[in-house]
């Protein structure tokens, strides 16, 4: 919402600046007219943004050349409507309220004062803004898919099934394999602890010892000794020793 308002405000101010330079080239500067057009544009694009958002959602899935031409036509039509509404207000307010003549009663002058190109840029900027927001909303879904692919395959008593990483309390090495400790029980995998740690989220799983990898969500208390080593107390009641070599990992918990 705030980014959208900032975007519209920037284009409105740009339009005012260009409009003033054009009026100065005519030798007639009318701040009242510029203010009316600026306020009209600000409210017009804010009101129109709801419909532009709908078009953006459709365009996010159809970015062909034909759809670009269609969007260009819609943007130009919106620009013409904005200029027409602005000029109606200018004519009404200048003749009724201010009781003076505007330098932009001429249609060509009106279109140049309320710049067509800037209005078109405003339309497409809003369009691309909503398209980017729409794409950002799909990122969590993609991350969920990746997370599902990272589920750990384990086997027990001849049966194979998937284990969610957040179900793992800690992992320890045992001879040439690793043991996954979960609240559902223990599972053995023939894999090194280092390679297995690469499949898990490094922000959640911390290496605390050459023999242990711990899910930080289950850490209840860290007890450090004078030499830098210590023990970690888990919420499950387990106690694991940690090495000062991996103390930096624990500092990020």
Strand content: 15-25%
Tell me the distance between the termini. 34 Å
- Radius of gyration using CA atoms only: 32 Å
> Sheet bearing the most strands, described?
5 strands, antiparallel
Query: Would you tell me the overall average pLDDT?
Result: 79
Helix and strand succession? HHHHHEEEEEHEEEEEH
Can you list the strand order of the major beta sheet? 5-4-3-7-6
The total count of strands amounts to 10
The shape is: elongated
Structural class: alpha+beta
How many distinct helices? Answer: 7
Number of domains: 2
| Residue windows where pLDDT falls under 50 for at least 5 positions | 138-148
Structure description:
The chain has 253 residues and is an alpha+beta fold. The chain has two domains: 2-147, no CATH class; 152-251, Beta Barrel (OB fold (Dihydrolipoamide Acetyltransferase, E2P)). The protein is built from seven helices and ten strands. The protein has helices at residues 2-26, 31-59, 65-98, 107-113, 116-149, 193-197, 247-251, and strands at residues 152-156, 159-163, 168-174, 177-182, 185-189, 205-209, 212-215, 219-224, 230-234, 239-242. A five-stranded antiparallel β-sheet has the order 5-4-3-7-6. The chain has a three-stranded antiparallel β-sheet with strand order 8-9-10, with no helix packed on it. The protein has a two-stranded antiparallel sheet with strand order 1-2. The protein is elongated, with a radius of gyration of 32 Å. It starts with a helix and ends with a helix. The model is unreliable at 138-148 (pLDDT under 50).
């Amino acid at each position: 919402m705030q980014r959208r308002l900032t975007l519209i405000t920037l284009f409105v101010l740009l339009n005012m600046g260009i409009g003033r330079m054009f009026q100065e080239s005519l030798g007639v500067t009318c701040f009242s007219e510029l203010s009316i057009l600026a306020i009209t544009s600000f409210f017009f694009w804010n009101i129109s943004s709801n419909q532009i958002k709908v078009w953006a959602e459709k365009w996010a899935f159809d970015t062909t050349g034909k759809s670009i031409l269609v969007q260009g036509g819609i943007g130009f039509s919106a620009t013409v409507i904005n200029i027409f509404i602005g000029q109606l207000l200018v004519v009404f307010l200048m003749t009724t309220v201010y009781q003076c003549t505007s330098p932009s009663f001429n249609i060509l002058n009106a279109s140049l004062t309320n710049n067509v190109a800037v209005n078109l840029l405003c339309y497409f900027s809003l369009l691309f803004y909503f398209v980017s927001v729409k794409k950002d909303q799909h990122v969590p879904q993609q991350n969920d898919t990746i997370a599902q692919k990272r589920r750990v395959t384990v086997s027990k008593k001849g049966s194979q099934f998937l284990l969610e990483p957040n179900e793992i309390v800690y992992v320890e090495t045992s001879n040439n394999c690793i043991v996954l400790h979960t609240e559902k029980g223990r599972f053995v995998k023939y894999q090194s602890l280092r390679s297995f740690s690469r499949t898990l989220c490094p922000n959640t799983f911390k290496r605390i010892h050459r023999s242990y990898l711990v899910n930080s969500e289950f850490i209840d208390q860290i007890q450090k000794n004078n030499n830098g080593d210590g023990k970690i107390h888990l919420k499950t009641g387990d106690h694991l020793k940690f090495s000062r070599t991996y103390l930096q990992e624990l500092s990020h918990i």
